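Hi,

I'm pasting everything inline rather than attaching a file, because the server keeps stripping attachments. The sequence lines come first, and each chain or strand is labelled.
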Amino acid sequence: MGTLYEDLVDYGGEVFGKEHIETLKECVQCGKCTGGCPSGRNTALRTRKLMQMALLDMREEIFNAPELWYCTTCFTCYERCPKGVKTTDIIRTIRNLAAKEGHMSVPHRMIGVYVLKTGHAVPIGPDQMKLREKVGLDSQPPTTQKYPEYLKEVQEIFRTTGYDAMIDFDWETMNLRGMAKGGKK
Amino acid sequence: MAESLGTYAYFLGCITPNRYPGIEAATKKIFKEFGIETKEMVGASCCPAPGVFGSFDLHTWLPVAARNLAIAEEMELEIYTTCNGCYGSLQEADHLMKKHPSVKEKVNKVLAKFGREYKGTTKVNHSIVILHDVIGLDRIKEKIKKPMDDVNVAVHYGCHFLKPSEVRGHGSSETPYILEDLVRATGAKEVDYKDKLMCCGAGGGNRTADSVQSLEWMRQKLVNAIMAGCDCMVHPCAFCHLQLDRGQAEMNKAFGTNFNFPILFATQFIGLAMGMSQEELGLDAQTTTMPEKLLK
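And the predicted assembly:
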């Protein structure tokens, strides 16, 4: 493990290219990101502060900040940053590292459960099948939720990248470990 | 029979087919009317949601998106979507793998486990761009049977259709024009309102992280549109639709309010103006109800 900055460049760099995440170094703390942030009007999210915390290697503080999860990835700050700091992608990468270290809420982990079970973050139910028929469509679209052989491909990706282990997914119950009966974890 | 304007693979995603099939029906009907043929993407999955899966693990997000792109490539077709999340996710994945060969190579090692390969031979389009650039405003105007002359429309873009603009390629994200043009083509008036370009509040896992805060954010947007005298909101994103439409019921419950501000996906709005019924377009089956003004 290096500094938070080094880890961000390594992990995010493999997807975005290192130079993309390295723009963090260009931040001059002008605050234009925070000024235009629609979340920041209603929440404690201060993008400028997150950028500074990342540069100051405040790993635990940033991973434990609830507001880290109040960014909707709207990209307003990303568009407006006068120094070209790729703010939104840096925030997504900070969240990736936080999630890897176990900072991930149960509702957030459940989204992964839905995809592992159906291939969809928002799966279909009987009522929605009727809605589809009402507008003249087949009761189910021809996607992974209809075809188990295709769902297996998506499950294979999750196994390969370790997403199943990251959310503590139990392949026996097809749910989060300890949540088979719908109990809270 | 309309002249043929091409064949596309429709990437459905999750919210469109599984919550708002009216959006799917409206888009397929209109496209057929204008000579765009739609093919289903058999075996496609969640895009997966860029703000959500991109926030939890980019290294899982990318191969799932690449697998969806590979399905369209096998069909030898370009994609269209009816959700900014799907559009954003697939287009960004395509962009990153084209820009970085090493990223593409790594992703293909994962896809090879089940015999698929991302080659980079498809293109990801948004349905409103097909409407605007392929079908075109003139053809749309010709098909308007019930002009929306006295209707004031609040345009809502959502985020990932326009941003990041360096990837999306629809010009400046601060001065968009595509939805405005489409709304005006129906005869309606596009009305500017405070924070028109603001997010719906749902993305990036925020709706899941804190629903009340996310609903308050949306409430502010709706109030701004209502104060500007708008009759309805027209948008290009199934995920925004979930937040803006169903979210009004959740918001009324959370805050004791009584909002019923009509929310329409772009093809549903154009469908009404083309003389289709609200039942055909699934507008009778959603939370917010359509006023007479839109149905006359």
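The longest strand of chain B covers residues 6-11.

If the labels don't parse on your end, tell me and I'll reformat.
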